[in-house]
Amino acid sequence: MSVSLDLVFSSEVAAAIAADGPVVALESTVTSNLGLPAPANAEALQRSLAAVREAGAVPAVTAILDGRIHVGVDESDEERLLGTAAKVAERDIPVATAQSWTFGATTVSASLAIAAHAGISVFATGGIGGVHRGAADTFDVSADLGAIARHPVATISAGAKSFLDLPKTLEQLETLGVPVIGWNCDELPAFTARTSRLPLTHHTDQLDTLVRIVASQLGFGRGLLVANPVPADDALDQDVHDDALQRALAEAERRGVSGPSVTPLVLGAIADASGGASVSANLALLENNAVVAAELAVALQK
Ligand code: PSU
Ligand code: MN
User: What is the pLDDT of residue 287?
Assistant: First the structure.
């Protein structure tokens, strides 16, 4: 048994990498049954793919399909990305491949591990995982944070998911040595809200500055977070959000969920409690992050 990783590239991604062209990695949890409800999941996928292509880059959705690690998914397999999945964080990848999981949906941490291995420098998602509320007791801190620190890939997100403990998430990112760069903002965005009111140490609105920051950090073999707020017109009304969040957290507690099940359950409960308003904000921020990621990938390549 040789020790090596077998990556399956879509034809589009293989061609882009061979030509040293711009590529943007995307996760597959958000479009699976663990992420957005149908048919918003299909819309999220198509809007993200189109946004990356329109900005001149090639999208590389990462996923485990029939036990193989895909970097970019050919159109004939796109439908599978909307189906029932097992959640695959970075540590689950070797098991998902060895046991030939039908559809392992990659989280941020798994996508970053795969992107780094494939030589892709930019990754877009919606909102990263982070330190959960109550983490002082549960120790529940998303593997996303360590993966962002460790892998030489720039992550573009609308900050971290709003149901997390955002001050502790920022502290943890600092501890891990992750630069958090506000893109056109100087406070940490809160996923479907434009701001958490938590100030960021670093920000820029200049693409050439962002490119130099990313190139420098990736040069150290490490990653960083680019925090890109949801477009103002698409942000979820703050009162609707806060009310939905309270109900979602109560639901999670009542159901007694823990571990990897927390994020999908709370996001689903916020969608229900906000009458679907969180879903349209989620679609807009995913697309917006894909655009910025593609612009960054194109500029990095120059
Ligand atoms: N978006 C969703 N549902 C999810 C996630 C995103 O609608 O489950 C995923 C992301 O892929 C993120 C992960 O990386 O949740 C974080 O999960 P955890 O808190 O278990 O680390
Ligand atoms: Mn967790």
Answer: 98
Q: How far is the CA of 264 from the centre of ligand 2 (A)?
A: 11
pLDDT at position 1 = 76
Question: Which ligand neighbours the alpha carbon of 128 most closely?
Answer: 1
Q: Is 134 left (phi over 0), alpha (psi -120 to 50) or beta?
A: left
The segments of the chain whose pLDDT lies below 50 read none
**Is residue 234 helix, strand or coil?**
helix
Looking at ligand 1, which residue's alpha carbon is closest to its atom 7? 35
Q: Is residue 124 part of a domain?
A: yes
Within 6 A (CB) of ligand 1 lie 27, 29-30, 34-36, 107-108, 126, 129, 142-144, 260, 263-264, 267
pLDDT value at residue 258: 86
**What's the whole-model pTM score?**
0.97
Phi, psi of 123 (to 5 degrees): -135, 135
Ligand located closest to 161 CA: 1
Total of domains in the chain? 1
Q: The CATH number of the domain where 101 resides is what?
A: 3.40.1790.10
240 contact partners, CB below 8 Å, separation of at least 6:
274, 277
Does residue 1 sit within a domain? no
161 a catalytic residue: yes
Give 99 Cα–ligand 2 centroid separation in angstroms: 22
Q: How far is CA 183 from the centre of its chain?
A: 16
**Residue 144, domain extent:** 7-301
